[in-house]
Design brief:
The complex is a heterodimer of chains A (about 325) and B (about 500). With about 325 residues, chain A is mostly helical. Chain A is built from 14 helices and 2 strands. In chain A, α4 crosses α11, α8 crosses α9 and α9 packs across α11. Chain A is globular, with a radius of gyration of 22 Å. The two termini of chain A are about 35 Å apart. Chain B is of the alpha/beta class and about 500 residues long. Chain B has 19 helices and 22 strands. Chain B is globular. The termini of chain B are far apart. The C terminus of chain B is likely disordered. The chains are: A mainly alpha (about 325), B alpha/beta (about 500). At the A-B interface, α9 and α10 of A face α10, α11 and β18 of B.
Chain lengths: ~325, ~500
């Protein structure tokens, strides 16, 4: 007899816990649900949305931006930030364009130099951050200005138009029925996703971002890790510039303007923490998908760009707020 | 109501997520009395303090301060009744001055409604003088030692009109030689009629400051006694639930050849140098005052702190200075003083933290062999008797003792040769402390050379084969086992550490 109330009590806590668990799971994976919901919504209100050509449009439009968000994810995981990526895109695009004008047949060299320019910019920022201990915000703000200035200098302040037509090969080559930039984007996420989870480098990036001193005590070469994430971010920005320029067969010094903030937004929406140590490549992918789907869907619905901006602002703040609530719940 | 006790806690109870963390607990503290609240980590001490200070709402029971009931569980109501808490982790504004810290939130203004800085500084000086604290109120808070910051906080609380003062492990963050000042502040407050509750798990403190002691174990009040009737054994037995006669395991006396050799290590530019050896199987204690250079020496040996000269060899092989990664390759391992700040990545799992120091031994061409990693880290954590929900648990959610076991255990995934420990049991409860001691002892027996830096005298004396005393970055004395077994060992170490020995000797020599 005495056991009956006891059992009932256990039963009731069990169901309550299950309800909590469902809610937790929902909150934790809220972004997945939101992306699905947004996609369904757009498919219903506009038949143009859920079509193969439109999906391709979303993907190809996402590619240059996705590469930057990938690099930004790594930098943010170490507790840093890379503000320079937008203007590195412009610098790399302008550099490649200048080479293409001079040597129209050397497409791959032009592309390679564009990437190397980005890598160099990243290496400089990374070295300044890791060896001189300049705060990442300041170091990359400086690089933003320097790269932007150089991009304008290359074209004497003007865009470079009329590139040889074969420059579009980079954006228009098809692999497995997909455009090369889309393939690069997918490969980039797959590779970095696995690298972050399975390599010692990945584990060390998380350790440095989570607690730099503890990482040092555990023998992690913190400087090397820091330099490497900025270098990767720079190289990916370089690649992004090459792709962008190839898609429009021109280059302009204002390419990539504001990309850094969009990339930061993608990381943050995907659960990344600006204080470092928290976030995943997959989260960023989700954030990116959400931003791109939203932009595309609103474009189709002919919502003016300024309202789109308002909507994405609301999205960023609410994503982080919900994430904080979810974290607090699970810590309780 | 005239005779209402300063603080009356009756039947308070609290559970989190269905788990009872504090059973119905009742006790009283009279004005001018100090009650030590003892218990291991997780026994419910902090919960009691949080309920009294209004940070946590009890499920049942009530708190009365001088007969008045604490109705709303919020810190403001508690403060209005005269309850103040000196938290374990002080949170001053380091960039503001001492007087600004004291007056923030109730600034004194002049007629023009502008800050009256002169008046605030003057009043602050008066407040500090009460506690015989000769600190310029205009200097920045960040330049004060933790102990002084603590006293400033106490001064601030009492001038708010606190009649019940709660201390949460007040000595955990301050140096030994500053503890005395805290005690005298507490005595002064007692004379003023302030009722105090003081949580700790150090025996010496209880004897020193408390009028009576309350022991909590697993959320239950298991002992309430006058200090006269509570000796160390009684209190410890109440805290852990069984006798703790073997806190320090038997000492293995057989030591092997020299394993770690430190020669002329200079940790401060143009400073003195230190040289010492540690044999296989030997536990070398390093004692001295905080700030005397103990930490600097082990950090210098490990390479996390730059050193200016000297050589370090392990089994005759020279180790590159200021390169922890090189030190690790030579089998050096280091457990830092600040577990959370320098030891662990709190956001990561036991597995990740456990794998980090010897990560390259689990990888091939940079790729982690997860199975190997799991089994090796699992084995190491079992060796240090870690109790966790599994290797996937975030270390931030472990208790202090278990966190310390992770910081220690992670070095055992590969054969370590030298183990450097800085305050290995700070903030660790008595039960886990005994386990950590036996792990250290076992490691020494297995042939490691162990160096232990500690402020805890019984630990230093109970654990070490030999103790070096450090003052002003110099080794000023050495006590062998015979000297450590002598009754005046603690006194000897303290004399050497504080430099009194020399002052005593000087007149004799002249």
């Amino acid at each position: 007899m005495a056991q009956v109330p006891g059992d009932a009590a256990i039963e009731s806590t069990k169901t309550r816990w299950d309800k909590n668990r469902v809610l937790d799971l929902g909150l934790r994976n809220l972004m997945v649900l939101v992306v699905i919901f947004v996609a369904i919504y757009f498919s219903i209100v506009n038949p143009m949305f859920a079509t193969v050509p439109n999906m391709r449009t979303i993907l190809i439009a996402a590619a240059p931006f996705a590469l930057i968000a990938l690099g930004q994810t790594l930098v943010i995981l170490t507790g840093g930030i890379d503000l320079s990526v937008g203007s590195v895109v412009a610098l790399s695009a302008m550099t490649s364009a200048v080479i293409m004008v001079g040597h129209p047949e050397r497409i791959w060299m032009a592309a390679g130099v564009g990437i190397l320019v980005g890598l160099a910019a990243g290496l400089v920022s990374g070295t300044v951050v890791s060896h001189l201990n300049v705060p990442p915000f300041v170091a990359t703000l400086g690089m933003l200005s320097i790269a932007s200035g150089l991009a304008y200098a290359i074209g004497n302040g003007a865009p470079i138009n009329g590139l040889p037509m074969q420059w579009d090969q980079i954006a228009e080559t098809h692999v497995f029925g997909l455009q090369l930039p889309v393939v690069i984007m997918i490969a980039g996420f797959l590779i970095l996703g696995v690298v972050m989870a399975r390599t010692s480098w990945g584990m060390r990036v998380y350790a440095v971002g989570g607690n730099r001193t503890a990482a040092e005590v555990a023998g992690v070469n913190v400087r090397r890790i820091l330099t490497s994430v900025y270098a990767i971010s720079g190289a990916l920005a370089g690649l992004s510039g090459v792709i962008l320029s190839s898609r429009v067969i021109s280059a302009a010094p204002y390419f990539g303007k504001g990309y850094e903030l969009g990339a930061i937004a993608a990381v943050v929406i995907g659960g990344g923490s600006l204080s470092g140590g928290r976030g995943t490549v997959w989260g960023t992918l989700l954030g990116l998908l959400l931003i791109q789907t939203l932009n595309n869907g609103l474009d189709i619905m002919v919502v003016p760009a300024y309202w789109q901006s308002v909507i994405s602002g609301l999205l960023i703040v609410s994503a982080v707020a919900v994430d904080l609530v979810a974290t607090k719940r699970s810590n309780r | 109501m005239v005779d209402a006790p300063a603080l009356a806690v009756s039947g308070v109870q609290k559970s989190y997520g269905g788990v009872l963390v504090l059973g119905p607990t009742t006790f009283e503290v009279a004005a001018g009395h100090v009650t030590a609240l003892a218990g291991e980590n997780g026994a419910g001490k902090s919960t009691v303090l949080k309920i009294i200070s209004g940070q946590v709402h009890p499920e049942a029971g009530e708190v009365r301060v001088f007969g008045e009931q604490l109705l709303h569980s919020d810190p403001q109501s508690a403060r209005r009744l005269g309850v103040a808490i000196v938290p374990q982790e002080l949170a001053p504004y380091p960039e503001l001055t001492v007087y600004e810290n004291i007056f923030v939130g109730r600034e004194i203004r002049n007629r023009a409604h502008m800050l009256d800085r002169g008046e605030m500084a003057k009043q602050a000086r008066k407040m500090l003088e009460v506690f015989e604290l000769d600190v310029d109120p205009r200097q920045k808070m960040g330049r004060l030692s933790t102990a002084l910051v603590q006293i400033v906080e106490i001064a601030k609380a009492t001038t708010w009109g606190a009649r019940v003062l709660l201390f949460d492990e007040p000595t955990s963050a301050i140096a030994d030689h500053e503890v005395g000042r805290l005690y005298s502040v507490i005595r002064r407050l007692r004379e003023q009629g302030v009722a105090m509750v003081y949580t700790t798990h150090r025996m010496a403190e209880i004897q020193e400051v408390a009028d009576n002691v309350i022991v909590l174990r697993d959320g239950k009040l298991v002992l309430e006694a006058d200090i006269a009737n509570a000796n160390e054994a009684t209190v410890v037995r109440a805290m852990v639930g069984h006798d703790m006669d073997a806190l320090f395991p038997e000492q293995a006396m057989s030591t092997g050849p020299v394993r770690l050799e430190v020669r002329d290590l200079q940790v401060e530019r143009n400073g003195p140098t230190v040289s010492f050896d540690v044999k296989q199987g030997e536990i070398l204690g390093i004692g001295g005052l905080v700030g005397g250079g103990r930490t600097e020496i082990v950090e210098g040996v490990y390479g996390i702190r730059p050193s200016w000269g000297g050589t370090i060899t392990v089994d005759g092989e020279p180790v590159r200075r200021h390169h922890p990664s090189s030190a690790i390759r030579f089998g050096l391992s280091f457990v830092p003083e600040d577990r959370k700040g320098a030891g662990l990545v709190l956001l990561r799992s036991v597995l990740d933290n456990g794998a980090l120091p010897h990560l390259s031994s689990f990888t091939r061409a940079g790729w982690i062999n997860r199975q190997k990693c799991r089994s090796e880290v699992g084995r190491a954590m079992k060796a240090v008797k870690l109790s966790s929900r599994g290797l996937g648990q975030l270390v931030g959610t472990l208790s202090g003792g278990n966190q310390q076991k992770v910081v220690l255990g992670r070095w055992l995934t590969r054969d370590a040769r030298v183990l450097l420990l800085d305050e290995p049991t700070r903030g660790v409860d008595v039960g886990a402390r005994g386990e950590i001691y036996s792990v250290i002892r076992d490691l020494a027996v297995s042939g490691l050379a162990v160096v232990v830096v500690s402020s805890d005298m019984p630990e230093l004396i109970g654990l070490s084969h030999r103790v070096l005393v450090v003052r002003e970055d110099k080794i000023v004395g050495e006590l062998d086992r015979a000297a450590l077994d002598a009754a005046d060992a603690q006194e000897q170490i303290f004399r050497l550490a504080s430099g009194q020995e020399i002052e005593v000797l000087k007149p004799q020599m002249s």
